[in-house]
Design brief:
GO terms for molecular function: rRNA (guanine-N2-)-methyltransferase activity. With 265 residues, this protein is an alpha/beta fold. It contains nine helices and eleven strands. Helix 2 (67-75) packs parallel to helix 4 (106-113). The longest helix has 14 residues, at 125-138.
Amino acid sequence: MTVAIIIKDSQLTEKSLTLASSMHLPLVDEVSSCHYDYYLSYDAAGLALASSTNNSFKPLRIDFVHGKTAQRLQQASINKEAIAKAFGLHKGRRPYILDCTAGLGRDAMLLTKLGCRVDMIERSPIIYALLNDALQRASLHSLTKELSSHIRLFHTQAQNYFDDYPNRHYDAIYLDPMFPEKKKSALAQKEMQIFKEIIGGDLDAHLIFNACQGYYTDRLIIKRPRLAPRLAQSPSYQLTGKANRFDIYLAPAGSNQSTSASGVS
């Protein structure tokens, strides 16, 4: 898979140059001259990823300010969201959460809307760039400015994150691994096709699960398709919905160390 940065708007040339330099990707000035599988480009709406070979792929852009995601954020409440129940959210309880598989950032942003603070880890440099751009745009909008201030994004592997910050602990850790789908699912929607092809599958999710042990004081939550097999041993309990399931692993008794992530940058 090959990726390039394409300049579509001359007024955004400087941003394109900066992105190409930081990602160590080639910079071209016309889509027609692009001999790459995918290209990243800026326009007035932000950064997007598109396919240069498959016109049926809808360009992928992460947006917390407009569209369905923004609408869901505005309407979200603890009583309505299944993820709130999975994390045990209630009045006075707003855990500090580490999302080890950030992806499109929707669940992390939703958790901040519900009052939590969230650190996100994303290992794909392309998805990280799209997420970072979306968060920057969100920080400039009145409806999402406060939410974006309660979320941090790290570009790294989850296993490396714990090696780099061995003293950093969280109230809860969240995993939403993606595996290659054998059947058609929501991921087959056109807006998700590029995402699925770029990310592939989190086939090392069991290693991430193992790396998380000892770094949460309350619970670790794995989001899975409703009928998918477990990622690890039997959870403490499960919450099952129409499409998804939360496998919830409570911290062992005596895991009462104080959460220390809040003061670390």
